[in-house]
């Protein structure tokens, strides 16, 4: 990755091991196409959230996107939370203001707008694979849409399934399955969540928050069973544009 020149108006992505990310190329092209020569977008790739303090102290940063694994861990560093982000319990967009750092969640917007056109009336029950920060926005949207949903995790907790508990009845009842885990992300493209794919059918809709590769092993397994599939690229583009709108709004 070539070194990004830091400009007068700096933006970036906070995460861990994020060289694969779409965001830097997306915003760099956006700035170039718009002739915004004083804007730059960089990766703030840190091993632990404690390093975020050093980033906050730098000059000319206007806004930051947040990805795995810091969507929840970043919250204590913020002065304010947008009401929706507070309700969701995860932040993926931070605006630097005169009154401190304010956190927002644009994942919910991106997911809803990219997923809704593919929803069918029979998609009334959903499984959410993974319980990290990204999954909280998914849960929020499904709740808003009145879709019954249950988390699936490797560990046993109240009101959620473990992967070992998933059986034919559960899979056939839950026709919407959303992968919020990083399993299958480049370069580990052969990985996928351990669900019983043999019980999938044409009524299922598999949504993967991953966008690299375009068709993950999770989505490919659904496609083999004639399920509807969608990756996370459109969601990412929509949430990125919503972030840009937030950073440039007059709200203090």
Automatic annotation (TrEMBL):
Which GO BP terms sit in this record? aromatic amino acid family biosynthetic process; chorismate biosynthetic process; shikimate metabolic process
Q: Name one GO cellular component term.
A: cytosol
| InterPro entries hit by this protein | Aminoacid_DH-like_N_sf, NAD(P)-bd_dom_sf, Shikimate_DH-bd_N, Shikimate_DH_fam
| EC number assigned by the record | 1.1.1.25
Which pathway, metabolic or otherwise, does it act in? Metabolic intermediate biosynthesis; chorismate biosynthesis; chorismate from D-erythrose 4-phosphate and phosphoenolpyruvate: step 4/7
- SUPFAM superfamilies registered for this protein in UniProt: Aminoacid dehydrogenase-like, N-terminal domain, NAD(P)-binding Rossmann-fold domains
Where in the numbering of this chain does the Shikimate dehydrogenase substrate binding N-terminal domain appear?
Answer: 13-94
Q: Does the keyword Flavoprotein apply?
A: no
Q: From what superkingdom does this record's organism come? A: Bacteria
An example molecular function term from Gene Ontology annotations:
shikimate 3-dehydrogenase (NADP+) activity
Record flagged with keyword Secreted? no
Keywords noted in UniProt: Amino-acid biosynthesis, Aromatic amino acid biosynthesis, Oxidoreductase
The molecule here is called: Shikimate dehydrogenase
Species name: Flagellimonas eckloniae
Gene behind this protein? aroE
């Amino acid at each position: 990755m070539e070194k990004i020149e830091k400009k007068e108006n700096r933006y970036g992505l906070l995460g861990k091991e994020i060289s694969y990310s779409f965001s830097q190329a997306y915003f760099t092209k956006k700035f170039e196409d718009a002739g915004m020569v004083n804007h730059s977008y960089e990766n703030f790739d840190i091993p632990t959230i404690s390093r975020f303090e050093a980033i906050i102290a730098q000059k000319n940063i206007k806004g930051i996107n947040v990805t795995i694994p810091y969507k929840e861990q970043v919250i204590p560093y913020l002065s304010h939370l947008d009401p929706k982000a507070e309700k969701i319990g995860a932040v993926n967009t931070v605006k630097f203001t005169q009154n401190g750092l304010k956190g927002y969640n644009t994942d919910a917007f991106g997911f809803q707008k990219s997923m809704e056109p593919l929803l069918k009336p029979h998609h009334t029950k959903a499984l959410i694979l993974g319980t990290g920060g990204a999954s909280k926005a998914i849960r929020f949207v499904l709740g808003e849409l009145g879709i019954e949903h249950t988390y699936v995790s490797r560990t046993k907790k109240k009101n959620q399934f473990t992967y070992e508990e998933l059986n034919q009845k559960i899979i056939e009842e839950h026709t919407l399955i959303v992968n919020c885990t990083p399993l299958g992300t480049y370069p580990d493209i052969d990985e996928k969540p351990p669900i019983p794919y043999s019980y999938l059918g044409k009524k299922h809709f598999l949504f993967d928050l991953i966008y690299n590769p375009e068709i993950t092993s999770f989505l490919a397994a659904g496609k083999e069973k004639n399920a509807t599939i969608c990756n996370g690229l459109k969601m990412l583009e929509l949430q990125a544009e919503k972030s840009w709108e937030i950073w440039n709004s007059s709200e203090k």
